[in-house]
Amino acid sequence: MYAIAAIFYSVFSYRFNAIFFLCGLITAIPSFVWNLYYFDNLTGGYSNVLSGSGYIFTLNHFITASLGILISPSRGLLVFYPIVFYSLFGAYQVFKHRFCRDEKLIGCMTIASILLLLNYCFFRIWWAGHVYGPRFMTDIMPILCYLLGYCIAGNIIRLLRVKNLINIKVLLFITCLIFSTSTQIAGAFGFNPGMLWNSVPLNVDIYHHRLWTIRDSQLERYFRALFNQIIKPNFNNPDYINGLDGVIKQITDENDRVMNSVISVQPGSTQLFKASLENKGVSRWFGYKAALPIGEIKVRGYLFDRENNQIRIITLYIAENLKQNESTTAIGSIIFPQKPGKYKLVFELISEGISNFPNRDNNLPYVLNINVVNKT
Description:
By secondary structure, this protein is an alpha+beta fold. It has two domains: 50-186, no CATH class; 238-372, Coagulation Factor XIII, Chain A, domain 1 (Distorted Sandwich), CATH 2.70.50. The chain is built from 13 helices and nine strands. The protein has helices spanning 2-14, 19-23, 29-39, 46-49, 59-71, 77-80, 87-96, 101-121, 141-161, 168-189, 191-194, 218-231, 238-242; strands spanning 246-253, 262-265, 270-279, 297-304, 310-317, 327-335, 341-351, 355-356, 366-372. Strands 2, 4, 5, 7, 8 and 9 form a six-stranded mixed sheet that branches. Strands 1-3-6 form a three-stranded antiparallel sheet, with no helix packed on it. The two termini are 51 Å apart.
């Protein structure tokens, strides 16, 4: 989009001198060679990830994607960087001076940014997969920054003439600027374990409703992770470990039907499991919302084949922090083997990165026998 906008601007502004710019387009050849070599196509890696067309041209998808790109709690451009809202006022300034040479260039790039935004409004995976924030909007951020500069330049003189600089408009602008900067800091330093938000407790590429949840949004998880990086909580001590105790009461499916000791599933199928838990110890449990690098309480499942060979590890996640005698539910999805046969799934409680729960009478593994069969 930007290359087309640049060509359009250079040809109509510089006429024959635009040939020097056009000669520079040969620098795009290495990018095409890279895509052909690594992805076997000219458009990049997303073509290999998506089966069929990467676009959905329906009104419902356009509405969902456009709202998601702009205001989704975990992907919205205006949610992560509210300062870019002021770029609209900068765009107005560019339009007012559209006959000047510089403003013509910024205007062309602004139109290209709008077209790029519309392009992603029809893209199937508008949330961009396992990323932080509005990744697809990264390309338009430099243009938004230029427009933001026009907004500031167009209002700074008027603000300087006002005796009381501390007014609601200035405070609102500063608040948006500080928050937008803070989200960048959280993204840089809260990456571990903030990035796990995309897959914990459920894969966001499958369970799209997580993109719209306000509680435990991606931003909240990253800010918690950043806070933990600062205070550095320590759970790796004997008193805390010895105080861990709990029980797995039962395992249910996504419809809350209790799983019996033997269940039958189809090869390669995926099911959502829930585990009812109770904290029996004196040590507090911390769930995934706490965004701890180590110490998160989980239900770890080990899948064994008929010969008792471990073939897969499964994890169910708890959300909240729990005190003694409090109960909760751990959730997670399980992908069963493709090969038919008899399997065994053993669940136990662990403190991630620290230890398994101490062996006690009520802290026994929860066992499910799995029959993977082809159902006709």
